[in-house]
From TrEMBL:
<keyword id="KW-0489">Methyltransferase</keyword>
<dbReference type="InterPro" id="IPR013216">
    <property type="entry name" value="Methyltransf_11"/>
</dbReference>
<feature type="domain" description="Methyltransferase type 11">
    <location>
        <begin position="18"/>
        <end position="120"/>
    </location>
</feature>
<dbReference type="InterPro" id="IPR029063">
    <property type="entry name" value="SAM-dependent_MTases_sf"/>
</dbReference>
<dbReference type="GO" id="GO:0008757">
    <property type="term" value="F:S-adenosylmethionine-dependent methyltransferase activity"/>
</dbReference>
<feature type="compositionally biased region" description="Basic and acidic residues">
    <location>
        <begin position="249"/>
        <end position="258"/>
    </location>
</feature>
<dbReference type="Pfam" id="PF08241">
    <property type="entry name" value="Methyltransf_11"/>
</dbReference>
<protein>
    <submittedName>
        <fullName>Methyltransferase domain-containing protein</fullName>
    </submittedName>
</protein>
<dbReference type="GO" id="GO:0032259">
    <property type="term" value="P:methylation"/>
</dbReference>
<keyword id="KW-0808">Transferase</keyword>
<feature type="region of interest" description="Disordered">
    <location>
        <begin position="239"/>
        <end position="258"/>
    </location>
</feature>
Amino acid sequence: MLTVDYDRLDLRPGMTVLDLGCGEGRHAFEAYRRGGRVVAVDWGVPEVETTKRWLGAIAEAGEAPDGARYEVVRGDLRALPVPDASVDRVIASEVLEHIPDDAAALAEIARVLKPGGRVAVTVPRYFPERVCWALSDAYHANEGGHIRIYRADELRTRLAAAGLVPGGQHHAHALHAPFWWLKCAVGVDRDSAAVRAYHRLLVWDLVQRPWLTRTAERLLDPVLGKSLVVYADKPAVPGRPAARSWSLDGRHRERSAV
């Protein structure tokens, strides 16, 4: 289930892509399949291991084109182990709402992006998220939980304060908003027939991608989309050459194996 639109991100084969707060790797997988040189970063040890395992499976299955590469590391988004101006694209999906010092994380994104590079930031949308918070403290008030709710204009302002230029935006996952409202209403840690039934619907939609639900979500996203996605660019510096590719072990590489 992808939140980022890769066409808007303008991800092209051979680009270095940093997936921050990669979780279990859903955006890293797609970037790798599209020929990116992917560096997936997360603080959670299980998330790092899961992402590494699945990227390895994609490589073994031959689902990534020649030239695609990946690395998975455990790292702090407020102090990335990445050189200045060294990556073409950054994805930060559903992670900023967990970070107390989100300004430091945004400053790091701006630092590591090459001039002319682009970032896609996704966060829970204000209205659906506010409903979840009103229905359940357990939804957000836990270790590692959501600590803030962003309005679109606030997120754009924070991106600009980091030296980035906010561009287009959209919403995603309208069908997921009612699921989380239902889950919060009955209790996020409780099992219920209604929640199980809705979850089966979402899994069916994810696997089968039927015309009916895909059309319904596309129409409902502007109103109920649970995620807000904002794209922003780092201003280009005229006359300055682009930085070279890099790897986390410090070796420049153009054809190195995973």
